[in-house]
Design brief:
about 80 residues; 3 helices; about 85% helix; rod-shaped
Length: about 80
């Protein structure tokens, strides 16, 4: 089974990359690095939360998570 810890670690690592991208692009587009930092500082929290929910839903409802769940359930039943 894929654990919450794994999803949280992926969420944080991906969000760091995404936030740096947002800050850089926002700074370039607005011409203000302060504005880029402000935009990146706000969106980091909302997007991290949304990604976590997306990742959990993907695992729970997607056919792509079935093999992992089956392996976990089979291993659990064996003892």
């Amino acid at each position: 089974m894929v654990s919450y810890k794994r999803h949280i670690a992926k969420t944080v690592s991906w969000r760091v990359i995404g936030t740096l991208d947002t800050m850089i692009l926002s700074g370039i587009i607005t011409g203000s690095w302060e504005m880029g930092l402000a935009i990146g500082g706000v969106e980091v929290f909302t997007k991290m939360f949304l990604y976590f929910l997306h990742e959990r839903a993907w695992y729970k409802y997607s056919k792509f998570g079935l093999n992992e769940r089956r392996k976990y359930n089979n291993n659990r039943s064996r003892g």
